[in-house]
Design a protein that fits this description.
Shape: flat
CATH superfamily of the domain at 37-124: Nucleic acid-binding proteins
GO molecular function: translation elongation factor activity
Organism: Trapa incisa
Number of helices: 0
Structural class: mainly beta
Distance between the termini: 29 Å
Strand order of the largest sheet: 7-6-3-8-9
CATH class of the domain at 37-124: Mainly Beta
GO cellular component, one term: cytoplasm
Protein name: Elongation factor P C-terminal domain-containing protein
Domain Elongation factor P C-terminal: 39-121
Strand content: over 45%
CATH topology of the domain at 37-124: OB fold (Dihydrolipoamide Acetyltransferase, E2P)
Length: 129
């Protein structure tokens, strides 16, 4: 069945030849369409990886102070925060997503179509997960 791209809304950018999609029909006429929740895209353009940056997350300790009423005692504490270094990547479909700093131009990545976000390298993904 041939349908117009506008049935897919913002996710029309993810459409590819021979992709399996879901259509909602009423009286055999398409009302809307949806793409898979995860699709493989190719990174068309991204800055080169930074030297020394790996897939290992960075941990940083951040101090904070808490005032406890009624005597307004000051309590010092700290917390550890884990984060990945990120950069922007232009995909083959024209969308831009944040990717980890180690991703390079030409790599295939798995993208969430719900959130337009990086999930993993495509070779790390298996269809049964």
């Amino acid at each position: 069945m041939d349908v117009k791209k506008d049935l897919f809304g913002k996710n029309a950018a993810y459409l590819k030849e021979e992709m399996k999609v879901t259509l909602r029909l009423f009286d055999d006429k398409p009302l809307s369409g949806s793409v898979p929740k995860r699709v493989i895209c190719t990174v068309k353009e991204t800055p080169p990886p930074l030297k020394g940056v790996s897939a290992t997350p960075v941990y940083a300790q951040f101090p904070f102070f808490v005032l406890i009423p009624p005597q307004l005692h000051i309590f010092y504490a700290s917390t550890w925060v884990c984060y990945m270094r990120e950069k922007r990547a232009l995909l083959d479909n024209g969308l831009t997503v944040k990717v980890p700093a180690f991703i390079e131009t030409g790599e295939a990545i798995l993208v969430s179509t719900d959130h337009d976000s990086y999930i993993s390298r495509a070779k790390e993904w298996h269809a049964d997960t």
